[in-house]
Amino acid sequence: MTIIAPADCSTMAEVRAGVDETDRELVALLARRFGYMDAAARIKPAREAVRDEPRKAQVIANARAAAAAAGLPADAIADLWERLVEASIAYELAAFDRR
């Protein structure tokens, strides 16, 4: 099935196909993001450097601002990013410990 832009969808099948394709794309982007966590674990000199609260706050603020600019619910996006960043930190710590 060809993926149709949201504004052009006229059936729930089209909507669901679009959502499913978007989810696949999001997972691919998350795989790339977590690859950067592997790189960070390789580059950072000490395990203590993994958790960087000022950087975490900056990443979440950036996501909140981008969401607001896109007309999305900024608080909901910030909540998602909080979970994403915490999952990324846990992943990076595990990667650091493996090296």
TrEMBL record:
InterPro entries: Chorismate_II_sf, Chorismate_mutase-related, CM_dom_sf, CM_II_prokaryot, Isochorismate_pyruvate-lyase. Residues 6-96 form the Chorismate mutase domain. PROSITE patterns: CHORISMATE_MUT_2. Gene3D superfamilies: Chorismate mutase. Keywords: Isomerase. Its EC number is 5.4.99.5. The keyword Isomerase applies. SUPFAM superfamilies: Chorismate mutase II. Pfam families: CM_2 (PF01817). PANTHER family: CHORISMATE MUTASE. This is chorismate mutase. It comes from Sphingomonas aurea.
